[in-house]
Design a protein that fits this description.
With 310 residues, the chain is of the alpha/beta class. It is built from ten helices and twelve strands. InterPro entries: AKR, Aldo/ket_reductase_CS, NAD(P)_OxRdtase_dom_sf, NADP_OxRdtase_dom.
Length: 310
């Protein structure tokens, strides 16, 4: 039993079990496996194979990161259902996350949207439900509806039994500070981009101080050492096995210092492609966010974007 650098306790179980080897404790008391399985499909999400999820469960994955916007929840649900029916796992062995998309931020839309995800996943509840982005699809100079309204609707979910925890995603320190100023329930999770080329150390430290678990997308295994859960994807069994090996090695202090010394600190993933209709409303001339810099609340650099596109 090792004290976790993020919050609570990290539990190390038998490697032979290949399930839930490493866990962190959320501020709700729930256990989240630090190695997850991402279900985003860049191409043809309608063809996402349920067998991929079934195989991932057989390989030992227990934490699945889903979202309405990924358009794969139906396939994920079928894969989970098969594993449950065959007795490979029980529901309480799994940690399932879903996320609220931008056009469902109004108070009256939050619960029905989660219920639709549950229908797709063929589950009675998710273990965590996150607001995917601090963005709404409605035009105008302000956030409509206000983010506070959305968060209050998220808090109301907890009394309905449809989710065990609520959280946010892609939240900067500035925006998360504002949420904490009015939140009755502190977010359990903040999922962010984090890897050696974008360590996001200040935000990781902020989350830790406030008892918020950090989940990393676009990660490498070293982020587990930093106390974050990670949600890499895989398409083949050998890729799943490679990801599982993140739990079977350690990095020395010298290794971590070398990784921490990488100089290029830029976001590597532009998740707001202007030609994608799902993402087009992220930036608008009239606001609320006119640029990537306003979304992230810092001087933004991307490895692959000319400065004029920031």
């Amino acid at each position: 039993m090792i004290t976790s650098p993020s919050r609570g306790i990290r539990l190390l179980c038998s490697a032979a079990a290949q399930s839930n080897e490493t866990l962190d404790i959320l501020n709700t008391g729930a256990k989240i496996p630090l190695l997850g399985f991402g279900t985003y499909a860049k191409d043809n999400p309608q063809d996402y194979p349920p067998s991929l999820i079934y195989e991932a469960i057989k390989q030992g994955f227990r934490h699945f990161d889903c979202a309405e916007a990924y358009q794969t929840e139906g396939a994920v649900g079928r894969g989970i259902k098969k594993a449950l029916q065959e007795g490979i796992v029980r529901r309480d062995d799994l940690f399932i996350t879903s996320k609220l998309w931008n056009h469902h931020h109004r108070r009256q839309d939050v619960l029905p949207t989660l219920k639709h995800s549950l229908q797709q996943l063929q589950l009675d509840y998710v273990d965590a439900y996150l607001i995917h982005w601090p963005v709404t699809d409605n035009p105008g100079p302000g956030l409509d509806p206000p983010y506070q309204e959305t968060w209050q609707a998220m808090e109301a979910l907890l009394s309905t039994g449809v989710t065990a925890a609520i959280g946010v995603s892609n939240m900067s320190i500035k925006k998360l500070t504002e949420v904490l100023s009015y939140a009755e329930v502190t977010p359990a999770i903040n999922q962010i981009e984090m890897h050696p080329m974008w360590r996001n150390s200040d935000l990781l430290a902020f989350n830790r101080v406030h008892g918020i678990h950090t989940s990393a997308w676009a990660p490498l295994g070293g982020q587990i050492v930093r106390g974050a859960s990670v949600v890499p994807s895989a398409e083949m069994p050998w890729q799943m096995q490679a990801n599982l090996q993140a739990l079977n090695f350690t990095l020395s202090d010298e290794d971590m210092a070398a990784v921490g010394g990488l100089k290029e600190q830029t976001r590597q993933h532009d998740c707001v492609e202007p030609m994608d209709p799902m993402f087009r409303p992220f930036f608008q001339p009239q606001g609320p966010w006119k640029s990537r810099a306003e979304l992230w609340d810092d001087p933004v650099t991307y490895a692959h974007l000319p400065e004029g596109q920031l």
